[in-house]
Specification:
By secondary structure, the chain is an alpha+beta fold. The chain contains nine helices and 33 strands.
Length: 453
């Protein structure tokens, strides 16, 4: 091993000098002899002089397909020239010159030569040995343009409790151009905006894209707008209840059966501070004065909202309010006198006798409510407070359910108040009152009772 190291290190200076001289001689040979070799270069096909067809109202239907085509060429030249060409290979072009196409019509299919062009300044001596492909099939079709609105397609959802407003887009439309068959297949032009749980306004720049009726992206059309600006307002939302009432009295013999409205609640948008103060929205009262049939009105909801509050897009713009008017039903019930409550009675001093065994009450109201009323189901009262002995005409009071009224005047009953006899507790036990031999005839006792009607 030691001998090998000594051998390598021996005369190392002369060895390095020899290597340097060899390299110099090799470069001299390269530059003097100019060896020739070949290399393969690949470029994407481009179409030139498109305005030649455009001026004729024509275009290349398969333009996108052609402009994605790769063209390869084997180029022969001196190695030094190829080295320089490699440094600028991005400037190499594979082109089809459309200006050479004459007397073409819509529907023509033409095989056009592909030219592989070396950039200027590379010098001469380049030779294209082979090329693939050498031609491109050009399909000519009538040029068509169409102006279309740009739709905003929003993906995702706004944050919980928030709603997006109608998006604003600028510009709002785009003009698409291309082969007629391709342009005609475009159904929509749209931009996509991701809401991403937004809780504040969204402002983005987006690229419009053409789609056909099946939602597939349409290639091969050009647009006069490359980017659009989209803003989407995001506001707090809240559901609030609607209320409605009727005012006025229907025609004689009729009554309000029910008040209905639709929708019963709405969703509104606004600032959080304003919505906190808004829980219900009262609709204007419906006037049913002298009405004998159902009254229906339509009310614009937006006019009732406070400033800074608006309806959400999924809420109806108006409410329908109906006041159902029905002819009042009548029913007569009989109340037993024993079921009448005497309010204010002093039973320690008086006896109370009602002249009638029964009292008839004529009621009016909704049929459903009347059906629930039976004898004994309602309270009937007579106020006998401070009544002295004798006969008295007392107005009966009734406790009727809401919506049920008495058809006639308030019922009246005769109440006879009788003084109770007081026992004499102050006389001594030894002194007995003389027995009154004269007996009060029964007829005289009966005079205290009210006469039978």
């Amino acid at each position: 091993m030691k001998k090998l190291q000594e051998l390598i290190m021996k005369d190392v200076g002369w060895k390095l000098l020899s290597l340097a001289i060899a390299i110099i001689l090799w470069f001299m040979v390269i530059n003097i002899e100019h060896p020739v070799t070949t290399r393969i270069y690949t470029q994407t096909l481009s179409l030139e002089s498109m305005d030649t067809l455009t001026e004729q109202g024509l275009t290349v239907r398969n333009r996108q397909q052609l402009e994605s085509m790769k063209v390869s060429a084997k180029i022969k030249a001196q190695r030094t020239s190829l080295d320089r060409l490699t440094q600028y290979k991005s400037n190499i072009k594979a082109v089809v010159d459309l200006s050479t196409m004459e007397d073409v019509r819509s529907g023509d299919s033409i095989s056009a030569d592909i030219s592989f062009i070396i950039p200027e300044g590379m010098g001469t001596g380049f030779e294209i040995v082979s090329q693939s492909p050498e031609q491109a099939d050009i399909v000519v079709e009538r040029l068509s343009t169409k102006k279309m609105p740009i739709d905003v397609y929003m993906t995702g959802e706004a944050g919980s409790g928030y709603t997006t407003l109608q998006p604003q887009i600028s510009p709002a439309s785009v003009q698409i151009s291309g082969a007629a068959s391709i342009v005609n297949s475009v159904e929509t032009v749209q931009v996509n905006v991701d809401l991403h749980q937004a809780s504040e306004d969204i402002v983005v720049t987006a690229v419009p894209t053409a789609y056909d009726a099946s939602g597939k992206r349409v290639e091969g059309v050009s647009m006069d707008v490359s980017k659009v600006h989209v803003s989407v307002g995001v506001q707090k939302n809240k559901s609030i209840a609607l209320t409605a009432e009727a005012e006025g009295s229907p025609a004689d013999g009729y009554e309000v059966s029910e008040v209905t409205w639709s929708p019963t609640s709405i969703r509104v948008l606004g600032s959080e501070g304003v919505l906190e103060q808004l829980d219900t929205l009262k609709l204007p009262d419906i006037d049913v004065t002298d009405a004998d049939s159902t009254v229906t009105q339509y009310i614009a909801l937006e006019e009732l909202l406070p400033d800074g509050v608006m309806l959400s897009s999924d809420t109806p713009r108006q409410a329908e309010v109906s006041v159902i008017i029905q002819q009042a039903q009548q029913q007569q019930i009989t109340v037993q006198s024993g079921e009448i409550t005497l309010n204010g009675a002093d039973e320690t001093q008086y006896d109370y006798i009602l002249s009638d065994e029964t009292v008839s009450l004529s009621l009016t109201g909704q049929a459903g409510q009347l059906a629930d009323i039976t004898t004994g189901s309602i309270a009937v009262m007579a106020d006998v407070t401070d009544l002295l002995p004798g006969e008295h005409r007392v107005v009966l009071e009734t406790d009727l359910p809401e919506g049920i009224t008495l058809l006639s005047n308030e019922p009246v009953i005769t109440v006879t108040v009788i003084q109770k006899e007081q026992e004499n507790e102050d006389l001594p036990e030894t002194e007995q009152p003389e027995e009154d031999t004269e007996q009060t005839p029964p007829a005289q006792e009966q005079q205290q009772l009210p006469p039978e009607e």
